Each structure stands twice: as C-alpha cells, then as structure tokens.
Predict the structure.
Amino acid sequence: MATNKKELRLQYKNLRKELSIDDIEEKSLAIANEVLQLPVWDKTYYHVFLPIEEQKEVNTEYILHLLSGKDKEIVVSKSDFETRKMFHFLLTDNTKIKKNEYNIPEPVNGLPVPSETIEVVFVPLLAFDVFGNRIGYGKGFYDKFLAECKPETIKIGLSFFEAVNQIDDVFESDVKLDYCVTPELVYKFKY
C-alpha cells in the first residue's frame, strides 16, 4: 500500500481517471450534502476552488449554490505560477471566469480579498490521511495560501475517496486540514 506522497499522488490520479462524469456529479452532490452538516455556517467569507474538469476534481458548483443560498461572500483565486502565490477575488454576478493555460478556471479580475479575511477554505486534494495531512499536486500553492490565513481559518478538504492510514513524508510546512468531506463521511481532525 502506497504511503509516500509521490506514490499516493499517482495512485489517486489513476483512481480519479476511472470515475465517469456521472460518478463525479453524484459524488460531488453527496459531498455538498455532507458539507451542510459542518459547524461552519456562522462565517461570512468562504474560499472555494473552481474544479479542473480535466483532472476530474470535485465539482464545487453544488457548494457554490449552498453558499449563495445562504448569502455568503464567495472568494475564488487566481494563481501566479512564477511566484506560486494565489490572489483572491470576490465572486460576484459580474466576475468573468476564464481557464488559464493549466485549465484552471480563474477570475479575470474583480474585488481583491486578503487571505486574512477568509474564514473557511474548501481545499482541493488528491489524497489525505486520518491525521488531516493532505496531498495536492505538489506545487505548494495551497500550503502557501493557508499559511497566510489566520490560524482560526477553517480548512476543509474535499475528496471522492476515504482517508489513507498515514502519509509518511509530511513536511513541517504542510498545513493540516480541520475537516475532510467525502461522499460518505465527514472526518474531523484534532491536533
């Protein structure tokens, strides 16, 4: 069983490839329904990733509808691949979204939102363990972004798959999740 980031990254990319469009929609809706159970609805600013369809990421459209229905401020990001930094913008009716060269849907422009303002972050990932460690694509964008947020910012991973027992090669700079939501379960991590 894979336990290091490189092997797990490969394993979970392959597991995702096997998912059909219907699987993705069904599981994404189930995840959104589980998200409703989280004790996070008293906040104002929620950061949501827009899925890379080609990577078969969780479709966050259902979560966007939940947030919109609850009149929450929704924040989306634009990535700078040279600095590996993310810039955050308020998602409004006027926000134009365009895919970048890596097929990541991003806001073209908009009202900037500082990382410190964001209270809840929905985090994309490939795999996670029972301790709240996550594996992304390995570029460190989210670790950098989450480190800029306030310590009390709630970090919620979204995954089609359940937790692995342990990721062996975790770094000090890796930011842990507070929760991870799968179609079946909500994992709550305590440190």
Remarks:
- DSSP finds four helices and eleven strands in the chain.
- The chain has a mean pLDDT of 94.
